[in-house]
Amino acid sequence: MAKLTTDELLDAFKEMTLIELSEFVKQFEDTFGVTAAAPVAVAAAPAAGGAAGGAEEAAEQDEFDVVLEAAGDKKINVIKEVRALTSLGLKEAKELVESAPKAILEKVAKDAAEKAKEALEGAGATVTLK
User: Fold this and answer.
1) Domains and CATH numbers, the chain
2) What whole-number distance in Å separates Cα of residue 24 and Cα of residue 125?
3) Which residues is 108 bridged to in the sheet?
4) Quick one: which of 87, 117, 85, 103 has its CA closest to 44?
């Protein structure tokens, strides 16, 4: 396979439809075992239906955000764990940990979110699932 330059790859993406790009991202995530979720908290719009609808929605929630509330005393261990979970570089992971509270992972399955929470708490961090 011929190696593509970054510019050639970007040109190829520009020619794709949003649906094709979405399918590409899903396949990329599956192939390399990564997530394309940005480590930034995003506020969701409230559901139309009032508080009763919100309570039902919370009971059926299947996607969670893993939010780092505080790094604790063992910041280096937390940075290592963030790097393992997000595939960020050392500098980016350090900045993310130091800017807590921040979302580490967004819209992940419940079991993946719980595993990430356990790993981060094991490293000394304070973590919540939203």
Assistant:
1) 61-129 (3.30.1390.10)
2) 34
3) 64
4) 103
Residue range 65-71: mean pLDDT, rounded: 87
Read off the pLDDT of each residue in 45-51 and give the average, rounded to a whole number.
52
Q: What is the Cα–Cα distance from 103 to 62, expressed in whole angstroms? A: 17
- Measure the CA–CA gap between 122 and 25, rounded to whole angstroms: 30
For the chain, the maximum distance between any two Cα atoms, rounded to a whole number of angstroms, is 56
State mean pLDDT over 22-51. 67
Give pTM, 2 decimals: 0.52
Cβ neighbour number for residue 80 with a 10 Å cutoff: 15
pLDDT at 67 over 50: yes
Residue 4 has pLDDT above 70, yes or no: yes
